[in-house]
Amino acid sequence: MRICVSGTFGVTSLVNRLLFNTFSIQHKPTILTTKYKMNDFEIIDMPISVLRPVKCDLLILTCKTQKDIESIAREWFGFHRHLIVAIYENATEEPILCPEAHFIRTDNMSSDGICQILRIIHTYKYTATASK
């Protein structure tokens, strides 16, 4: 299962939290595409400046507001099966780019939202395996 992670805020932090359950207080922007392979998963940490979208099973876009990633979501349309929006520091925004179940309020310095994202990933992994 291929999972692409991109966005405007906390991309690498989210990938590190999902894969290694670690976080850093320092903010470092994602500047290089990094691929991780663990078990049946390929997780691609992609900077927002990537030249073109990649086919994937699940796209996770990170942001502080959905307006920040609207153009990215439009550009990636058709390249992914499912979209998750991981939103930071915004308790009032309502989902517009994805279903409510895939609109996850996240904080990488705690485990807020991480379990929900992992649950969605595992649900789609086993759904995809069953349909083969």
Topology:
Blueprint lengths: L1 E6 L3 H10 L13 E5 L2 E5 L10 E8 L6 H7 L3 E9 L14 E4 L7 H18 L1
Parallel strand pairs: 1-3, 1-4, 4-5, 5-6
Antiparallel strand pairs: 2-3
Task: Evaluate the radius of gyration.
Answer: 14 Å
For the termini, the CA-CA separation is 12 Å
Helix content: 25-40%
Could you say which structural class the secondary elements and strand pairing correspond to?
Answer: alpha/beta
Structure description:
- The protein has one domain.
- 27% of the residues lie in helices and 28% in strands.
- It has three helices and six strands; from the N terminus they run E-H-E-E-E-H-E-E-H.
- Helix 2 links the parallel strand 4 and strand 5.
- The radius of gyration is 14 Å and the shape is globular.
- The mean pLDDT is 89.
What characteristics describe this protein?
132 residues, alpha/beta, 6 strands, 27% helix
Summarize the structure.
The protein has three helices and six strands, in the order βαβββαββα.
